[in-house]
Amino acid sequence: MKRREINPWTWQEPYDFSHAIEIVGAEAIVHCAGQVSVDADGHPLHAGDMAAQFHCALDNLERVLREAQLTLGDLTRLNYYVTDVPAFLDAVPRVGPRLRAAGCKPASTLLGVSRLAMPEAMIELEATAVRGPAAR
C-alpha cells in the first residue's frame, strides 16, 4: 500500500493535519461512527471537560480501530465535531502529542456544532482508516 500526504502549503503543520491523503493499494477501508466520551455501557463521562472528553473519545476510537486491526496511525480522515471551538483549541496542546506519537496526521475538519446527540458530549470524532495488504 502506498500512502501520500498532499499538502500544497505548510500553514497546517502546527495543527498536525494533512489537506489530503492519497492511498493506493489498500486492502480495507474502515469507516468509524462518531466516538464520544462514554464508558463501556454508553454512559457519558467527563461533563464540562473538553480535554478529558477528547482523550476518552480517542480511547474509544482506538478500541474500535483495534477490533479492525488498526491504530490511530492508520487514520486517513479524522473529523472533529465540537460544541465549543475555543475549548477544543485549548485542549489540543494536551491531546496533540498523543496523536503525533501515534503517527496520526490525517485529513481533518473541525466543525463547531450547537449540540451533539448526547447533550453532555462536547466532542465527537468521526474517522476513516485504511489497512494495507501486509497488515493482516
Keywords:
60s Ribosomal Protein L30, Chain: A; two-stranded antiparallel ribbon; 6 strands
Layout of secondary structure:
Layout: E1 2-6, E2 20-24, E3 28-35, H1 50-67, E4 75-82, H2 85-101, E5 107-112, E6 123-131
Parallel strand pairs: 4-5
Antiparallel strand pairs: 1-2, 3-6, 4-6
Helix pairs in contact: 1-2
* CATH homologous superfamily assignment: RutC-like
Tally the structural domains.
1
The CATH architecture classification is 2-Layer Sandwich
Within the CATH hierarchy, at the fold level, what is the topology? 60s Ribosomal Protein L30, Chain: A
Q: Tell me, what's the shape?
A: globular
Low-confidence segments: none
Structural class: alpha+beta
In total, the number of strands is 6
Largest sheet: 4 strands, mixed
Q: What would you report as the Rg, rounded to the nearest angstrom? A: 15 Å
**Span from first to last CA?**
13 Å
Strand content: 25-35%
H/E order of the elements?
Answer: EEEHEHEE
Portion in helices: 25-40%
| Multimeric state | single chain
The number of helices is: 2
Order of strands across the main sheet: 3-6-4-5
CATH level 1 name: Alpha Beta
Mean pLDDT: 94
Describe the structure.
The chain is α+β, with helices and mostly antiparallel strands. It has one domain: 60s Ribosomal Protein L30, Chain: A (2-Layer Sandwich). It is 26% helix and 30% strand. It contains 2 helices and 6 strands, in the order βββαβαββ. The strands form 2 sheets. It has a 4-stranded mixed beta sheet. Strands 1-2 form a two-stranded antiparallel sheet. α2 links the parallel β4 and β5. α1 packs across α2. The longest helix is centred in the middle third of the chain and has 18 residues. It is globular. It starts with a strand and ends in a 5-residue tail after the last strand.
